[in-house]
Specification:
four-stranded antiparallel sheet, 8 helices, alpha+beta, 44% helix
Amino acid sequence: MSGHSKWKNIMHKKEKTDAQKAKVFSKIGKEMTMCIKEGGPDPVSNTKLRDLIAKAKSLNVPNDNIDRIIKRASNADGLVYETIVYEGYGPSGIAVIVEAMTENRNRTGSEVRHYFDKFGGNLGQSGCVSYLFSDKGVIIIAKDDGVDEDKLMEDALESGAEDFITDDDVYEIYTQPDDLDAVKDALVALGYTLESAEKDKIPSSYIKLENEDDIRKMNLLLENLEENDDVGDVYHNWEE
């Protein structure tokens, strides 16, 4: 999985400015609202909501904000969000998947297409790049003196994980998407502290950009997509 680091993506989100953090909070709020409408406000029975709460906390969303989101979503009527997945190519054929939640499909589609066109890419048809990615669960555990790498790897694999990677500052544990909760709960029960545990799309291969203009455009494409209020997650196979 060279070129991929889920932890670096998480740290990138954590280190945003206050204005950018407000957008992160807003996006998570939208995800939680949609999740509550589909499965109810109880995180015990609504496991997707439980995962979103954990994700929100990992990105430093205050508990008061989370409580307000759940309360507001539980009482919200009329506003309906639709999940839309866009696929396309960035500069030099970088594969990009954009997951959005919107109450206005036309507006969001127009904005996403504009970003691709403006920054050297093109929006494609459904399925044009998704075959290059695999859905995985990813668990992050920080390295510290209290974590024995060999024991953690043994515990993770015995709990149902399928891969274990040592990164610079963390251990990354990969599972099948449906096994994520079981592996996460097993590791927590064994006393491990998790930095995050969420589903991700992992590319089968990566592309390294050599041209400075392509690098600039790819960065701008990702920045504009991430700053859009309707865009939830962006996946790509650029080896940064």
